[in-house]
Amino acid sequence: MAAPPAASALEPAARSFLRGKQSSSAYRLPAEAPVLPTVDGWVISGHPEVCRLAGDRRLVIDPRAGDPPVPLTQSERLESVLARMLNFRDGADHARLRRLATVAFSARRANAVAETVAAVVGDLADAALARGEFDAVADVGVPLPVRTTCALLDIPRADRQQVADWSTAMSAQLFTFKQPPDAVEAVERQLAELTGYIDDLARHRRRGDLVADLHAALDHDEFVAFVVLLFMNGLETVTAGIARAIGALAWQPGLADRIRRDPGSAGDVFAELMRLHSPVRLGARRAAEPIDAIPRGAPVFLAWSLANRDPRVFTDPDTFRPGRPGRSLAFGAGPHHCLGAALAGQQGAAVLRAFATRARLTCRTDEAGTPRLPGAAIDGFSALRVVAEPLMVGVTR
């Protein structure tokens, strides 16, 4: 798994990619330099290479296991919760928690909540369209995953906005540092409120309920961390994907007509949008042991978004082609594959159907002019202003 000698010419493109800047040269990496050492770490961009390493347990995800260790957040109290979460655990602990997560996000539960997803999406779409102009991120992308999880956990409707506020506040603290003491104190007060709420949920649930089952299977601290993770799940990935889907209806001529004619195609359309615009651009790992040419301790970056355009796997990879063969890595792969990926697919398809059948959409900006999220990990918009013109009943074009 060594890089070809000529690959060093692509190192600047790889380093720019790690800083959130994706040039056309970066898309050459999967075919020409699928495994590339840089001064920042190893960039893995080839689809088969990413799949292989994503499943290699010699790569660890816990940033605190590095040398030097990297904390997860500035608040020590929140750090103790985040450190117990599934997505920052490795080895046997990860496998144990993953089994519980598989039950929580099983196909049976996802199918059971499908009607709820459609209802939540319908409510959000109706509210957004009633305003005539809305923000696809703040008005749809952010509330959708939290409200869906609240439905999965049977959270009372009256509590769902508060849960969303707590979850958004916790998620925003990941890898956030240099905050003033009063800001950290405010977050820790919110964490205490959220912990108390979760404990109260457990006291009032009975066996067979998901919250009760998790409470019985875990110690207190792991139980709280697990439920907080469920609340936070999708706040970045699904939010980015939903905003992208709404933008596509406005920016891609004929896409809304296609979905109106064939609502069943919405799932394939959303999957292809996620392949082309992967919400998570890369995943950071560290080699706990040597792996081929990768030395022990080296940072390793799995470039999901580049692997999703590997021409060895996807013919004409830059072409939008719903239903195409090939395994998309939009929600990762291996042991840390996104546990809500199936649910995200349901949400994305429901959003496409709801907005395509209710209105014609235009955006205040084109894709290039739409403000983006900072950072390298998430490919998403910070805001997306959309103007909606309601469709007349029976109009298909």
Structure description:
By secondary structure, this protein is an alpha+beta fold. It has a domain at 1-71 and 281-329: Uridine Diphospho-n-acetylenolpyruvylglucosamine Reductase, domain 2 (2-Layer Sandwich), CATH 3.30.43. The chain is built from 18 helices and eight strands. Strands 1-2-6-5-3 form a five-stranded mixed β-sheet. Strands 4-8-7 form a three-stranded antiparallel β-sheet. β1 and β2 (41-44) form a beta hairpin. The longest helix has 23 residues, at 181-203. 43% of the residues are buried. The mean pLDDT is 91.
Defining traits:
single chain, 397 residues, Uridine Diphospho-n-acetylenolpyruvylglucosamine Reductase, domain 2, 18 helices
For the biggest β-sheet, the strand order reads 1-2-6-5-3
CATH architectural name of one domain: 2-Layer Sandwich
Give me the secondary-structure category.
alpha+beta
What's the overall geometry? globular
Fraction of helical residues = 40-55%
Order of helices and strands: HHEEHEHHHHEHHHHHHHHHEEHHEE
- Major β-sheet annotation: 5 strands, mixed
Question: Can you identify the CATH class of one domain?
Answer: Alpha Beta
Condensed summary:
The protein is built from 18 helices and 8 strands.
Topology (SSEs and partners):
Elements: H1 11-18, H2 29-32, E1 35-38, E2 41-44, H3 47-54, E3 59-60, H4 76-82, H5 91-104, H6 107-112, H7 114-130, E4 133-135, H8 136-141, H9 143-152, H10 160-171, H11 181-203, H12 210-217, H13 220-232, H14 237-251, H15 255-261, H16 266-276, E5 283-287, E6 299-302, H17 304-307, H18 341-358, E7 359-363, E8 385-390
